[in-house]
Design goal:
Strand order of the largest sheet of chain B: 6-7-8-3-9-10
Strand content of chain A: under 5%
CATH topology of the largest domain in chain B: Rossmann fold
Number of domains of chain B: 2
Number of helices of chain A: 9
Shape of chain A: elongated
Structural class of chain A: mainly alpha
Helix content of chain A: over 70%
Distance between the termini of chain B: 32 Å
Oligomer: heterodimer
CATH class of the largest domain in chain B: Alpha Beta
Distance between the termini of chain A: 35 Å
CATH superfamily of the largest domain in chain B: P-loop containing nucleotide triphosphate hydrolases
Shape of chain B: globular
Bound molecules: adenosine-5'-diphosphate, magnesium ion
Helix content of chain B: 25-40%
Largest sheet of chain A: none
Structural class of chain B: alpha/beta
């Protein structure tokens, strides 16, 4: 019953957001601010997460592939493909569920409990177009960028780890990476990142927009937003793999 | 003129009030009084449709506000000014920008026109030297006055105040009361004031509505209030005399 009620309200909020997405004049200023906060400000953590994942992946694959008749270039192939198809999108998705999701839920939750959302509505604004639309829309533009940054750093991190540990020479890594580099994989990764961005921002907007009960309520909304975003990222990841691969 | 007809509201299984009937005439100042938690704020939020009732309706100048389209409702809401309990200032922008905010979106005015109107409103609330102070630097009384300046910036026909004097010292409370009187007398604004401060009711209001025991328990002019024998109303008045803040 509660889940149905929640889901119904979530769909209603989305419907309102879609309907009010034509009111560009209301939200374009917020859209740029959100693109900076979601995209630019998240770049360092996403690049770091990507680079370390790539490095670990190289070292671990080298350790697991001890059989000598498997060429070293295979390691490059595995690292590049795993990063592009799965890891860059999921790792950045999980990091951003915490970083972006928590921020959005806190912002909107605080505005809700301090009656700022009521104030916006009572002035004659559409609060959904003012607050929700720019946040979700910013993710459409910025999550793909973050995905590309994470994938690039992941591959570079993997390459560097191979060179530094002496386990995979640069030439082998590049050879394998190039052989197993398919454009379709990037399309798949980009699609994933857009879906993750939508899931994270819409769920967090929902949690914040309907927060109740003062500071404690905002804390609850924030935690819920981060946790639910993570879960939904993992679920949609599985779903997309089943549909698209 | 605002007509509240047979209004009933509950949250889940928790009934706030029912059978509320009330007329608010142009130019008058109505005080909505009652114990904390009796649903005063909830009633006020029905008057500009921030909340929707379970039953009954509100008619503003002949329009049933719950039957309006969202676009028409937003136009109607621009005729209401709303001072929220905690002032609900937008904390991401300065105090000055808070007042300028509705003008920037709802008028096509140039910067100097906007500046002139903002300073006019800040003057009215005796805050002309507020400059570019951030909202965090303001005291409680100043926040309310900035909120009031923002509420009147679009020259509303109706002004709603939610606990305008609560949490303020007696001297600042009197300043706010004077402002409420000034707004209604010199700007001819119809005012609705939610409060549990009887001192302020006797100073500013023409009539009073007493919410108690989940209904509109008493309604009349201030002169009638002074001589009323209504038991629970007398108790409420007595209790509020000993109350501080
Ligand atoms: N959004 C809401 N959801 C659930 N209950 C609410 C909500 N807003 C108010 N209430 C409940 O309605 C009652 C009246 O609240 P309110 O109008 O804020 O009282 P007050 O007279 O002090 O202004 C309270 O019991 C409160 O808990
Ligand atoms: Mg209240």
């Amino acid at each position: 019953m509660d889940i149905l009620h929640d889901f119904g309200r979530y769909c209603k909020l989305l419907y309102q957001a879609i309907r009010s997405s034509t009111e560009i004049g209301t939200y374009y200023k917020n859209l740029f601010a959100e693109m900076i906060k979601t995209g630019y400000d998240s770049l360092p953590i996403v690049m770091l997460a990507g680079a370390f994942t790539g490095a670990v992946l190289t070292i671990q694959t080298a350790y697991q592939l001890v059989v000598s008749y498997i060429p070293l270039s295979t390691i490059g192939a595995i690292v590049v493909q795993s990063m592009v198809i799965e890891l860059a999108a999921v790792i950045s998705g999980l990091v951003l569920a915490g970083r972006v999701g928590a921020r959005i839920a806190t912002e909107l939750g605080t505005m809700r409990v301090s009656e700022q959302i009521d104030a916006i509505e009572s002035m004659g604004f559409n609060s959904v177009s003012f607050l929700v639309v720019p946040r979700v829309l910013a993710s459409f533009f910025m999550f793909p960028v973050l995905y590309i940054a994470a994938a690039t750093c992941g591959i570079l991190g993997g390459l560097l780890a191979g060179i530094i540990t002496g386990q995979v020479p640069m030439a082998d890594f590049m050879k394998g990476g190039r052989e197993y580099f398919f454009a379709w994989d990037i399309v798949f990764g980009l699609t994933k990142s857009i879906v993750f961005g939508f899931v994270i921002t819409s769920v967090s907007c929902y949690k914040g927009y309907y927060a109740t009960g003062g500071a404690e309520g905002v804390g609850k909304a924030t935690t819920n937003a981060a946790v639910l975003s993570c879960i939904y990222v993992l679920l949609t990841d599985l779903l997309l793999a089943a549909i698209l691969l | 003129m605002i007509e509240i007809k047979n209004l009933k509201k509950s949250f889940g299984s928790n009934l706030v009030w029912e059978d509320v009937n009330l007329d608010i005439h142009d130019g008058e100042t109505l005080a909505i009084i009652g114990k904390s938690g009796c649903g005063k704020s909830v009633l006020m939020k029905h008057i500009n449709a921030l909340l929707t009732p379970d039953e009954g309706t509100v008619i503003v100048d002949g329009h049933d506000i719950f039957k309006l389209t969202y676009v028409d409702l937003r136009i109607l809401r621009q005729r209401f000014g709303f001072l929220f309990q905690g002032a609900a200032l937008f904390d991401s922008i300065s105090a000055y920008e808070n007042v300028a905010f509705p003008l920037r979106y709802f008028t096509k005015w140039k910067e100097d026109q906007i500046h002139k109107r903002v300073m006019e409103c800040l003057d009215m609330v005796n805050l002309s030297n507020i400059g570019d102070k951030s909202t965090a630097e303001l005291s409680g009384g100043m926040r309310k006055r900035v909120g009031l300046a923002r509420a009147i910036v679009l020259e509303p026909d109706y002004l709603m105040y939610d606990e305008p004097t609560s949490g303020l010292d007696p001297e600042t409370s009197d300043e706010i009361n004077d402002l409420i009187i000034y707004m209604s007398e010199s700007l001819k604004i119809t005012s609705i004031v939610v409060t549990h401060d009887m001192h302020s009711v006797l100073r500013i209001a023409d009539s009073a509505a007493f919410l108690d025991e989940q209904k509109l328990s008493w309604y009349g002019t201030i002169d009638e209030l002074r001589i009323s024998k209504h038991k629970r109303l007398l108790e409420f008045i007595k209790a509020s005399e000993y109350q501080i803040g």
